Amino acid sequence: APATPPVFGPPPGASSGPHTPPGAWTPAYRSGPGTPPGGTRLDRLPGGRRVWLTAVIVTALAVLAGVGVAIVQLVAGDKSSGATRTSNSTGPSPGVVPQPRGGTVTVSINADSTAHDPFTARYQAFGDGQRMSALYDPLVVFTQATGKVAPHLAKSLTSTPDGFTWSLQLRPGVRFTDGTPLDAEAVKFNWERHADPAVQSAHANAVRGVTLRVVDPTRLDITLPAPDLTFDHLVADELAYIASPTAIRADPAGFARHPVGAGPFKLESWTTGEKQVFVRNPDYWQGPDKPYLDSVVFAVNAEQPVAPVIGGTADVNFQSANHDLQQARSASLELVPTVNTGGVMLGFNSASAPFDDARARKAVALALDASALARDSGAGATPTRSIVPPESPLRAGNPPMQPAPDHARAQALFDQLAAAGKPLSFTVMCGPGEQRTMQAIQTQLSGFRNVTMRYEVAEAARFADAVGKRQFQAMWGYEAGADLDTWLFAISRGGYSGNYLGYRNPAVDAGWDAVRAATTPEAKASAYNAILRGLNDDPAWWLYAQISVFAVQRKDALTGLDGAYADGLLRWDRVGKKEQGKK
After folding, report:
1. CATH topology for the 341-548 domain
2. Which of 466, 507, 527, 581 could make an S-S bridge to 534, C-beta 3.0–4.6 Å?
């Protein structure tokens, strides 16, 4: 079976774009003082997370760390002027069922880390995200179950009704594992470090133009360069992990391998290319009863990441590649899903020929049949016509859908292009393992006149270089994320630096302007619907199948997996092992 498609746009498991979809995606609006509105963009720099990667390339994401690929991310939240995006909770989330105590969990990972600092690490669930969550604990989290941002390590994040000024309220008494207070000064230090060009943070644009003011040890005021009604979503996606300023100042060059956070675990050892061992933080801010586990081991298994779980030498693997998921199902492993918005796509480079002509994009999109492709390629994919799957809490009602295949209209468009002296001929860049899928697409297009498709199988370095330089005609991959706003804005807003597809559509741009200005759920829903209609009328891609991240485990081996946030990141303070003492 072909490998999972590439991630296009900002990173995989990475982030960038809108969050709560149109009408079908109803955000929670709650009346109350201090509305947290806001949305923001961020250009991904070297080490960023999203960037059209095939499953094979995802496994080798470390290659991208040195590539200057600009990736974007806007996090826009749905809020009315009096709504509160994050609750004013003053303690850990209620209703958490106690888990078994003790034991070690071994996580089989697809690749070793490149770094463990908040500035260059990759946050996706099958990248560095699980380790970052264990080390640092997020300030706030976007939860898939609700489609909202909620406080975790922070106490609250709220804003003024106009969305210009936000206040981050921290819990008193929280300390990093080196004893340094995690206070407003620490957050300010970290966010200003993101903005330092010398650091080359993957999240630099998230704080570009932002002014920070420490009010007191537990309160940081944030003034944005423009009203942003979903800034809390941006914080959850890009700015949630805070590192010890003391440790960074003491060894800025070495911090990435010797991180100091305030999470439930701390890094004890790191054998490059082999494993990382995290041990319980005895001074964890949630008290002596957490975390439940004694330690977590992340063991590298690049070639066969699911095999150790099948063999019993690992407890869990975080996976999205179809061939690995098929292996897990065949072995009767349990798959705990985190449903993401987005999907597997054929992305068009709208900035250059031949797809700078909208007729070419539309013709290909109308010609291809997703159900037939799933059958003929043997990919085991679930075809879809919506970037918001039915299982997503962000979906409600009937959102605009990608048009169904229409071979007559497609042929008419191919003929129009040929009559204009532009018979369609193009090359699709794909990753290793995608040949069968590409051949199936070629077979479908061979039934039409005036269109020729070729494909190029590219390794990770070649793929990343083509994306960074925008030197491709079409790409096979996926664009996805938990929070819709974190990736869709990035690749659909005209002129945006992370819009590597070069897509421009005045109707879609107007929709994004309306999203940022919306003060009611109805206005935001209407704006999102306009965006999706615009993308359907003038496609930036052809949407093929759903994409999700799964926690693959032996049945009922672990508890606490249902508390995942973002694209499947665990709250490691909640994870327990049913069979204590098993290694």
Report:
1. Dipeptide-binding Protein; domain 3 (3.10.105)
2. 507
